[in-house]
Design a protein that fits this description.
Elements lengths: L11 H13 L10 H15 L10 E6 L6 E6 L9 E5 L13 H11 L2 E6 L10 H15 L11 E6 L1 H16 L5 E5 L11 H8 L3 H4 L18 E5 L6 H13 L4 E5 L15 H18 L1
Parallel strand pairs: 3-4, 3-5, 5-6, 6-7, 7-8
Antiparallel strand pairs: 1-2, 2-4
Helix pairs in contact: 3-9, 4-5
Length: about 300
């Protein structure tokens, strides 16, 4: 299945959520190009339309690490039961403009519990206040820090992985390439509907916020678009997406590039789902099942 016309209809619960959003009159998340306004709008939409799932929580600790642009806030989430199998460094989604540790804490909790890993969530700097490459540099610094401090996370000598959703999946893909180049061993890269080719980003508000006046100069930079990097030798990938996702064709192309480079790939296509499904687990059983499948894939990669 490689076209939307062949896919089943969008999941009914997600379609109803999107209908309520349209009927609410609330603008799109990035409309207007104002970072603080977009973040407040996103918080309101999440509260109204797709609240966080209520999941059992293990130990959670927030701290700061040193980064290239100043201190970086990170939060470690341990599984509710059992010793961790390893560590996942996780970057949240949000178009490089919105989102934070709090908005995606349930993602980290689900992954920690289901995959049985310690999850280090990264509160990287956001555009437009901090345009490319500040956010991705924060993410890369967090991965390097985690690699040197596994004893404080999922355990020394245990596997390390990177992951993220959407914009955070972009960072995870870039981090996997950087880890290959820096000799940091990764067990896996968990890519949840990642953006991998910034030349195809159609939203002018996102382009302007993330790249400022330098979109044409930077959009093909491998730190922005991992699709343009050399991919051989990077960690095995787990890639999850639905055909109703605006990044579906992007993800198909990246999956093809990974295969062509000889990178082991677990491709998970969820026929009734769209972008953001990992955030909709409290309103849609199909989204919850997809999220759990990706966590199970990660756990398998960590043992």
């Amino acid at each position: 299945m490689d076209t939307l016309t062949q896919a089943p209809p969008l999941d009914a619960a997600v379609a109803e959520m999107e209908r309520r959003w349209r009927d609410s009159g609330i603008p799109g998340l990035y409309a207007g190009g104002n970072g603080p306004v977009s973040r407040e709008r996103a918080r309101n939409i999440r509260s109204l339309l797709y609240p966080k799932p209520d999941l059992p929580k293990g130990r959670i600790e927030r701290s700061t690490i040193v980064g290239p642009n100043g201190p970086i806030t990170v939060e470690t989430v341990w599984p509710v039961a059992g010793e961790p199998l390893g560590t996942l460094v996780y970057c949240h989604g949000g178009g490089w403009i919105i989102g934070d540790i709090d908005s995606h804490q349930a993602h980290a909790i689900r992954i920690a519990n289901r995959a049985r890993v310690a999850v280090l969530s990264v509160d990287y700097r956001l555009a437009p206040e901090h345009p490319f490459p500040q956010g991705v540099d924060d993410a890369l610094a967090a991965v390097a820090w985690a690699a040197s401090n596994l004893d404080r996370l999922g355990g020394a000598g245990k596997p390390l992985a990177v992951g993220g959703d959407s914009a955070g999946g972009n960072f995870a893909a870039v981090a996997a390439i950087a880890c290959r180049d820096q000799g940091i061993a990764l067990a896996a890269q968990l890519l949840i509907y990642p953006a991998t080719d910034m030349t195809g980003i159609g939203d002018p508000d996102i382009r302007r916020a993330y790249f400022g006046d330098h979109f044409e100069r930077d959009c093909r930079n491998p730190k922005a678009s991992p699709r343009f990097a050399r991919l051989d030798g990077i960690a095995p990938a787990i890639l999850g997406v639905g055909p109703h996702d605006f990044l579906y064709r992007d993800n198909l192309a990246y999956a093809g590039a990974l295969r062509a480079a000889g990178v082991p790939l677990t491709w998970r296509e969820f026929p009734t789902l769209n972008h953001g499904f990992f955030s909709y687990t409290a309103i849609s059983p199909a989204c919850a099942a997809a999220a759990d499948q990706l966590c199970d894939d990660l756990r398998e990669a960590m043992v």
